[in-house]
Amino acid sequence: MRPLTDAHLAILRRHMVELIDIEFDLLQEEIGRPAPSPRVRDAVLAVPRHLFVPAQFAALAYQNSPLPIGFDKTISQPFMAALMIELLDLAETDSVLEVGTGLGYQTAILARLAARVWSVEVVEEFAGIADARLIALGHERVAIRIGDGSRGWAEAAPFDAILVCAAAREVPEALVAQLSPEGGRLVMPIGDPGAQRLVRGVREGDELILREIMAVQFTQLETV
After folding, report:
1. Of the candidates 139, 152, 166, which has an alpha carbon nearest to the alpha carbon of residue 220?
2. Which Pfam families does this entry report, sorted A to Z (predicted)?
3. Cross-sheet strand order for the sheet of 142-146
């Protein structure tokens, strides 16, 4: 079989976004959004997901499903990636912290939506690959470092939004402290395996007000 061309991949990417639209529509009562915003939709459409998965899975990159990326980790289902980013309600001027860079797919989407992205990854190999791919795609407003994401990135705080791509029993205190007290938004999965819920939090002063969105299944947040 002939290899996929850029034209083929563009068609598959458009189809993936259409599947995301359908899932938003089907779940709109649960997630509170009938569709991704035009900004988020355009950003997802622009990012070549096949560059952020292992080469052996490139042909599967535009299926609406998670894929293994190594070290018992996965790249999130495209719908879930789009939903979590949609729930951040990002503005072009926002500073964003991402916990769990992975191979950089969601980082690349965030970079198209916010002024600055700070991303923490616990797996050194992932951080190196993601950094190289993001640079190759021209994303200069992204900083990646290796470390314990539950501790955030205090030197760059406060953040307008925080996206956590792994589950914890509760929102880490360090992340709450680094979120802007004037309406900062946080999206992450909460709970033990088999009982996780995606939550959206808004910080108002010293209080983080959480709202449950839907049941999810994520790997657990690694701390070191």
Report:
1. 166
2. PCMT (PF01135)
3. 142-146, 116-121, 95-99, 161-164, 182-190, 196-204, 207-216
Q: What is the pLDDT of residues 1-28, one digit of tens each?
A: 788 899 999 999 999 999 999 999 999 9
How far apart are the C-alpha atoms of 205 and 18, rounded to whole Å?
Answer: 39
Q: Out of 65, 76, 150, 180, which one is annotated catalytic?
A: 76
* Nearest Cα to Cα of residue 163 among 18, 72, 67, 40: 40
What's the rounded Cα separation, in Å, for the pair 168 and 99? 12
Under the banding of pLDDT at 50, 70 and 90, the label for residue 193 is: confident
The yes-or-no answer on residue 180 being catalytic is: no
> 152 in the Ramachandran plot: left (φ > 0), alpha (ψ -120 to 50) or beta?
left
Of 110, 94, 111, the C-alpha closest to 182 is 94
Q: Tell me what pLDDT residue 128 has.
A: 97
Hey, which residues does 25 pair with through a beta bridge? none
- Global model pTM greater than 0.70: yes
pLDDT for position 224: 76
Number of residues that make up the chain? 224
Domains defined for the chain, CATH in brackets: 6-216 (3.40.50.150)
